[in-house]
Amino acid sequence: RTPKQPFTSSTRQEDLKWEFPRENLYLEEALGEGEFGVVMKAKAKGLAGQEGYMQVAIKMLKHCSTPSEEQDLWSEFNLLKDVTHPNVIRLLGACTKEGPLYLIVEYCANGCLLNYLRNSCLEEKGYVNQHVCYKTPNNNKEIRQNGETLTIRDLLSFAWQIAKGMRYLSDIKLVHRDLAARNVLVAAGKHLKISDFGLTRDIYEADAYLKKSRGRIPVKWMAPESLYAQIYTTKSDVWSYGIVLWELVTLGASPYPGIPPERLYSLLVGGYRMDRPEHCPEEMYAVMQKCWKIDPQDRPKFRAIADILDRILQEKT
Ligand code: ADE
Prior knowledge:
Blueprint: H1 9-16, E1 25-33, E2 37-45, E3 53-61, H2 67-80, E4 91-95, E5 102-106, H3 113-118, E6 121-124, E7 127-129, E8 149-151, H4 152-171, E9 174-175, E10 184-187, E11 191-194, E12 201-202, E13 209-210, H5 224-229, E14 231-232, H6 234-249, H7 261-269, H8 282-291, H9 302-315
Parallel strand pairs: 6-8
Antiparallel strand pairs: 1-2, 2-3, 3-5, 4-5, 6-7, 9-12, 10-11, 13-14
Helix pairs in contact: 4-6, 4-9, 6-8
Bound molecules: adenine.
């Protein structure tokens, strides 16, 4: 990969390859909304040489967004042009001319992983364990209607798919910086796709990216070196991945329950880590603990994590 110049004429030329006529998009309801961006469900007529209409998702800015948010969406566009992996969201096209920037991406029918987990129940040894259904903030157990019943095997498969997507991103030298269950999407057939590249940075040859002053990343997913020195590497993505494993096996609980974010850094440096959640296989907790090693170099590579999970899944068939 060669470093990208943000707005050279060659980049513009390259954009034309992705250009899709705005008038062939039929916007439907909002799928998700952030502070500055919104994702709309839409149908696209004649996209990617296909006849008829294709269900897609469109990422765009809200009116209140600032130039720096706009820059984030452009950089997400530039990054997505280069990524092709079954476990990473795929860019299908873009509207860059005569109006606001729209990124057209594949539609994932089951929405974000965090809500999907929260609406699911865990089946263990043939019975549905209602105890592991998502707990509301005041800790009442709430059993949702229409949710999936997931098995430990499903959760291990989710962990494996995310590890494979992250292995690919680290191979092409991308640091995600915001890996969390809320930023993973669930497509049909329980296929997961890593999404939300707004904060992703291309690290080129350097092995660390120093974040500038905007502190938008939630503390409880961040590695100690990111909290302390704004250092983001593939190894800090591995730390966040450990938190995602914890989110998986708790069916979307919020990490470090009861711990105020401002106390977290000193607790982590003092060696505190979350306990093994109920129903969490020992091997999966062992991976979490490796991801949460204080020295980034001691954390495993995504390749090794994917291999461990692959082996566990094979043993379970
Ligand atoms: N929410 C955010 N992005 C989405 C997508 N691509 N598909 C479905 N729901 C989404």
